[in-house]
UniProtKB/TrEMBL annotation:
Ranges in coiled-coil conformation: 1-39
Record localization: Cytoplasm; Nucleus
Catalytic activity: S-ubiquitinyl-[E2 ubiquitin-conjugating enzyme]-L-cysteine + [acceptor protein]-L-lysine = [E2 ubiquitin-conjugating enzyme]-L-cysteine + N(6)-ubiquitinyl-[acceptor protein]-L-lysine
Predominant subcellular localization, coarse grouping: cytoplasm
GO molecular function, one term: zinc ion binding
Organismal lineage: Eukaryota, Metazoa, Chordata, Craniata, Vertebrata
GO cellular component assignments: cytoplasm; nucleus
BP GO annotations: apoptotic process
Free-text function comment from the UniProt entry: E3 ubiquitin-protein ligase that participates in multiple biological processes including cell death, glucose metabolism, and in particular, the innate immune response. Mediates 'Lys-63'-linked polyubiquitination of TRAF3 thereby promoting type I interferon production via RIG-I signaling pathway. Can also catalyze 'Lys-48'-linked polyubiquitination and proteasomal degradation of viral proteins such as influenza virus PB2. Acts as a negative feedback regulator of TLR7- and TLR9-triggered signaling.
Assembly notes: Interacts with PKM isoform M2, but not isoform M1; this interaction may compete with that between PKM and FGFR1, and hence reduces FGFR1-dependent tyrosine phosphorylation of PKM. Interacts with IRF7; this interaction promotes IRF7 proteasomal degradation. Interacts with TRAF3; this interaction promotes TRAF3 activation.
Pfam families named in the record: PRY, SPRY
Organism: Ursus americanus (American black bear)
EC annotation from Swiss-Prot or TrEMBL: 2.3.2.27
Protein name: E3 ubiquitin-protein ligase TRIM35
Keyword tags: Acetylation, Apoptosis, Coiled coil, Cytoplasm, Metal-binding, Nucleus, Phosphoprotein, Transferase, Ubl conjugation pathway, Zinc, Zinc-finger
């Protein structure tokens, strides 16, 4: 701590001056003891001059301000200031990937915030797992309120991002019942797909045309449950891509991650961390 080091230096300087004064006083005592062995007349003559010299010594140096450590500076609202620093160093996401729903192609990271397509691998069967396509769901269920999340797509060649309506009979057959992941079966999303004239973005509504804007590398999703709106934006250019209007009911975030086209390592799809802000107000 800088202030503590400064105070320590001041204390050390004072201790050094006190040591020097103590040493000078010790020498004076030695001379006095030596003079006391001389005859009385010589001793008294020297003692008079010594009294005048000691009488004219300087007054003690006053204590300088600022010698004490500013305790309030370090202990005032200590818990709150430590918490604020922790908020800036800890990342939080709006939801995580649910590995129990991940198809055999997909591998979810240990922190549940990214997923990669490593090719098909045999997984433990369960009713929640996708089996017909490399898909998985987010951990949260949305049915009311406003919700926003962003997804880092990077240069992934094939992906889908959106929501899927929960099935009432999902416990029996899971999500493998439908090969048509589109609006007809309760899937609302935008995706990157390969066309004759190159890659482009389309929606899960078969009646819509390909989207005009460039393929995003970071996608923002905004869900308004009461208004029945699901909107997609390019998070980097802030360009609106598409908005669905429907009665969604209970939905979960939905993702599809196709395989890599080249020989390089597969890229992950990531959920972006939230931007956390702290607002300070007077109580009451």
């Amino acid at each position: 701590m800088k202030e503590a080091r400064q105070k320590q230096r001041l204390v050390e300087e004072k201790m050094k001056r006190l040591a020097e004064d103590t040493e000078a006083l010790a020498h004076e005592i030695e001379r006095l003891q030596a003079e006391m062995k001389e005859d009385d007349v010589s001793f008294l003559m020297k003692h008079k001059s010594r009294k005048r010299r000691l009488f004219c010594t300087m007054e003690p140096e006053p204590v300088q301000p600022g010698m004490l450590i500013d305790i309030c500076k370090y202990l005032d609202s200590l818990q709150y200031r430590v918490w604020r620093k922790m908020v800036t160093s800890v990342e939080s996401v709006p939801f995580s990937f649910d590995p129990n729903t991940a198809a055999g192609w997909l591998s979810v990271s240990d922190d549940l915030t990214s997923v990669t397509n490593h090719g098909y691998r045999v997984q433990v069967e369960n009713p929640e797992r996708f089996s017909s396509a490399p898909c998985l769901l987010g951990s949260r269920v949305f049915s009311q309120g406003s919700h926003t999340w962003e997804v880092d797509l990077g240069g992934l060649p094939s992906w889908r991002v959106g929501v899927v309506r929960l099935r009432q009979d999902a416990g029996a057959e899971g999500h493998s019942h439908s090969c048509y992941h589109d609006t007809r079966s309760g899937f609302w999303y935008v995706c990157r797909t390969q066309g004759v004239d190159g890659d482009h973005c389309v929606t899960s509504d078969p009646a819509t045309s390909p989207l005009v804007p460039a393929i995003p590398r970071r996608l923002r999703v905004e869900l308004e449950c009461e208004e029945g709106e699901l909107s997609f934006y390019d998070a980097e250019s802030h360009c609106h891509l598409y908005t669905f209007h429907a009665r969604f009911g209970e939905v979960r975030p939905y993702f599809y991650l196709g395989g890599a086209r080249g020989d390089g390592p597969p890229e992950p799809l990531r959920i972006c961390p939230l931007r956390i802000t702290v607002k300070e107000e007077l109580d009451g």
